[in-house]
Amino acid sequence: MISNTKTIDLGKLGKQKFCKFCHVIKELLIERQVTFDLIVASGNSGLIMAKFTELLYEYLGKPAPDILRIPFYRFFPGKEENFDNYILLTSIIEELKPCGNINSVLFVDDEIEKGTTAFGSLELMNAALDKLGRPRIQNFYIVAEDHGFMLPTKYSEVKFFPHDTKTGDYVKAIFFTTPPELEKPLLDVLGEDEVFRFHNRRSVLFNLPVKDFNKGKPIFTNKYLTLAKESISNLATLQEAYYNNLRSLINDCLGGDWSF
């Protein structure tokens, strides 16, 4: 646990967690020689983690598989009532139609506790594959920070590779890596955390859409990205700098000294 009297360097903490994530992905791709047919990104954090993963494939000289984007909601916004994500089944069927057989899947997220998003995504994908008359997923790898996750025995196809455990009360700490000078222009335009969650600013820097409940029909929307492009004249430069910063960090993590 974190001492109340100790000041935490959040940038350093984020880099440490990012590097541990890099090493787990490298272990799977290089040391274990796992070939993934698909990367699954569920929700905003998952989409960002999937982009991190793409950059790692690039660094390791491997072609990255396609990314399946699922705008998954655990609950109705602002409520504790579970949301039924099977409304997304039709769109997932359409997404999987062009794919061949999907044997091994990589599910990446910033953290995992109960596994609601991971298992919900797996079940949606298997339901879509059933509709398409294709075999179900044989290997479902989860890479995320462990927040007390317990793997149920009924999911024999699931393999869990945590890249770290929770540090104190910090959540989404892997996203603390963004340099302030890249983040501030977005904060000024899109708002503070209570208006636009801090990790979603990474989505804009990645030129990604953001999840929207859309009156009970969840989608990924470009409306925040469009606003940022209209309001920040040098957004493309900030985005390029963000990519370069991450590539440099990956090189430090996997090719150099990452004892931050």
Order of helices and strands: HEHEHEHEEHHEEHH
Largest sheet: 5 strands, parallel
The CATH architecture is 3-Layer(aba) Sandwich
Number of helices: 8
End-to-end distance, in Å? 19 Å
- Overall body shape: globular
Main sheet strand line-up: 2-1-3-4-5
Percent in helix? 40-55%
Radius of gyration, CA atoms, in whole angstroms: 18 Å
Instruction: Assign the structural class, choosing from mainly alpha, mainly beta, alpha/beta, alpha+beta, or little secondary structure.
Output: alpha/beta
Topology, number of strands: 7
Question: What count of domains describes the coordinates?
Answer: 1
Uncertain runs: 1-5
The CATH topology comes to: Rossmann fold
Give average pLDDT, whole number. 94
Characteristic terms for this protein:
260 residues, two-stranded antiparallel sheet, globular, alpha/beta, single chain, disordered N terminus, 7 strands, Rossmann fold
Question: Would you spell out the secondary-structure blueprint of this structure?
Answer:
Layout: H1 10-31, E1 38-42, H2 43-59, E2 67-70, H3 89-96, E3 104-112, H4 116-131, E4 139-146, E5 158-160, H5 180-190, H6 200-205, E6 210-212, E7 219-221, H7 223-231, H8 235-255
Parallel strand pairs: 1-2, 1-3, 3-4, 4-5
Antiparallel strand pairs: 6-7
Helix pairs in contact: 1-8, 2-8, 3-4
